[in-house]
Amino acid sequence: MRYKKRTVLMFITPGLLGLLAFYAVPFVWGFYLSLMSDAAKSTFIGLENYGKVMQNSIFVLGLQNSLLITAISAPICWAVAYILAVVLQRCSFNTNFVRSTLIVPYIMPSSAILLYFLLLFDWGGMLNQILSAFGIPRVLWLSGTMLRVPVIILYLWKNIGFCTIVFSAAMQSIPKALYEFADLEGISTIRRETNITLPLIAPSSFLVIVFAVINSFKIFREAYFIGGPYPDPSIYTFQNYMNNMFQKLNFSNVIAGAYIFALIVILIFALLYLLQRRYQHALS
Amino acid sequence: MKKSVLILLCILLALANCLPAAQASFVDGAVKADPLADPEDIQSVFLYQGQLYTSQQGQVFRKKTDSMDFEAIADLVYGEGAPDANTLPSIHYGSFLPDGETLYYLLGAHLFAAKFENTKLVLSHLYNLELDQDNGFVISNLSRIIDGVLYAPFASEKGEYIVIWKLGEKQARYIAMPHEVGYASQIGKYKDGIYLVGDTAVFYYNGKDFNPMFTYRSYDEVISINSCIVYQAATDTFYLTTGSYLYRIDNGKMVQMGVLESYVKQMLFLNENDLFLLHTKAMNVLNIHNVKMPKGVLKISGLQDERLIRSYNRLNPEYPAINVDSIQNPDPQMRAAAMKSADKADIYFSEITDNLDSLLRLEYIAPLDAYPALTAHIERFYPYVKKTLFSDGKPYLLPYNIYSYGFEGQLSHYAYNTEYWKTLGLHDSDVPKTFTEFVRLLEKLTDEKQDVLDAEGISLYSAGFLQDRLKMRALNLTLVDAQRKGSIPQFNTPELLSVFEQIQASQVLASLNTRPEEGGDESLFIETHDVIDIPIGYHVMPLSVYEGSTPYTLCTETVFYINAMSEHKEAAVLFAQTLLENLSKRSKVLLYADAKDTVQDESKIKGIARNEKRIANLLSEIAAEKSAGGKRVSTLEQDLRQLELLLEYKKNNTFIISPEELQLLNDTENHIIILQKELFEWNNEQMQVLSERMRSNNMKPKEFLSELDRMVSMMEQEGN
Hints:
By secondary structure, chain A is mostly helical. Chain A has helices spanning 2-34, 48-55, 57-90, 96-102, 104-107, 110-121, 126-133, 148-172, 176-185, 189-200, 202-217, 220-227, 238-247, 251-283. Chain B is 30% helix and 28% strand.
């Protein structure tokens, strides 16, 4: 047994060392720097940097936008991907081609598709033409709060496919006999999904929501392509702030901002994890 | 008896052959060209019979024994048997290829024997090389003749070759150079073959294979590092310069020998000990045994004028300065990374708008308050220059130059021609004070004075896109006005909107840039780059955005600063001191408020002299071409017209800072603002898209101005 422990230790030590050197130590060191007046100076100022950043209205705006876009886009992504996976599961024909196609947006660079999206949502774009055809007034999608719509749609278009594949893979592991039994019992579709599918794919569902949340934070890329470093306030995200501060070598703001954001992300994932644990506990 | 006479005759003949060919017959003053003393005028030199020669514009120059001057000694002329001159390139486009006692001249595909005859160097046609000229060309300046064999790099669509041709033989051999050689930049004699300098390594070609001997730079350094290589057969040693260092090759490895004052264009061994170096801006002879590594080397980054480095080096041979690179990247991250890297420079030159406050915040720039030799100079600067040098009450930066600043690098300093002003019947009261007045005056002149303008040949304005320039300058001035008041700039105001709309609605079609140097005429209004360097006959015309606003002249400043992490701070301070002492003598733009003497711009004076010389050479070439009935007369005359216009422009520009100009600077002191950072990133992509949309009328002025307000407000909130 002792021999086994030593072997295990031997195998995980390189990984642990890497984790320590490249994640744990920088994380702690970064936190230490965030308590200093500047990255290059060594005057201890406590939480002053955090206070300064939290009082910055544009940082708060960026944070609010990032969280709002996440709150809107991640659940939609999760739900649509789930529905699509169910539909694919129920299809009588071979869906391999459809599944392969779904992954294409995920691997396609955002910049390549952005121009198309901008044309689509422009004042004279296809979307507004459709609206006009139905007698609905045109919408200025590319300015003001409406600018969030194309950004979120771009995000959904990119991520839904991947999430669907994850759901599909999980659903395929559910024994078909369970569904046949449910059909014999005459259970409704909603009950079938909530009582059979969802409980059995709970870990994968959690994984999908984690992916969806993480990718929603990366929406900055699309926002940057659309609006540059100072886009419309509706799509000015937390990462815009970080990027602009980094450009100006304002490291203290960057570090403090990063830790505030890290804390929020940790809290979100802790909450999700607790919810998942409680859900699984309730099921068992 | 007969035998001894024959022997004596043979000895005499041999002696005659050993004498430098017809040296005694060179008559001083027979060739009228001025001596060449400026290394910038000399492209390359060649060593023939122990003496250094160069050529220019069809004349041959020889280095004087007692100085670095090259005096004109002979004219290049064709001798008998030369092909029709019309089928040849101009006579001065060839290359001299000395081989022992014989001097060859390679012109296009023709090889000549060159022989001095009094004040002429006569070219006798030897061979038409008949190389495959249709599909490639011989690089004549890199060719060499070694022991009667011509080695010539040959570039063609198929690749790079070395042409090897034993003089007189029927056919040349084409040897394809291996891929690893790259571009052959030098050929020389080495043992029983040749050495060939490739992109990164030196190869030995023994008639069969190309063998790499040593590597002197990496592929990454090919563009950035200039190298020069020479082989000394007597000691079987290669010497090379890479950047600003001299090396020798020892067992295939580069051994650093010393620091050179600047980049080397060419080097040649005059004898076993003396190495002649032709730098980009200097020439000197170096005794190879006396080269020592100095105590330390001061690295300078971004300085364009190497004369200052030479001034400093003359005073400090033990701690010479070298220009390590010319980093002009304003990206603060790049600069910060460079300043703390292992290859860091001790002194950096950059624009003051290059986000230097972030470097100051990081304490990467050394404070100068501990060096009274430098702070004494600071006291003498103009007040608006002086205040840019301080941070938290301490001096950190030193000025080098100032010039007016505009949007996207456009010029923004306006002046009017006083003579044309009178011709058009205008008075002092007509001088516009605001941008809209300026536009209205241009419109009025176009409508009412077109006949006078046409008759007198006056162009209205010397730069294109007037409307855009005025609009962008109006934005800059609004920005600075707010900056000075300590408020957030507001662009979308009724006043600015009105200015924008009036400028946009104006029908004045400004002509494209027709500055005299580019072949245009003088015009009524001009824009100039320098704060003080206004052409003679023009008056400065400060324009305010709207009535009541201050007509600022916006400037940017080139500064230099000492790296706080430098290990050679004392030497850096000494360099800064040398520079400041030379500043009032050499700087194009005067920075000292208390300077009383006139200041000459040496580079401009030199430029005028060079231009005059080029015109004289071109005139003689045209005369020769005309007498020979050549076809190139009209082309040469066109070149002449351009040169004459350029000369006129240079002469008409002030190159001496006069007391009147000093007075002008003093008078406009309150209007000169040096922008210390780009509050607004005018040049970012987002801004460029925005202004492009406005230019192409896809965005109304109000929309544009409110979008600017939004962006500035976000920047302000971010904490800029």
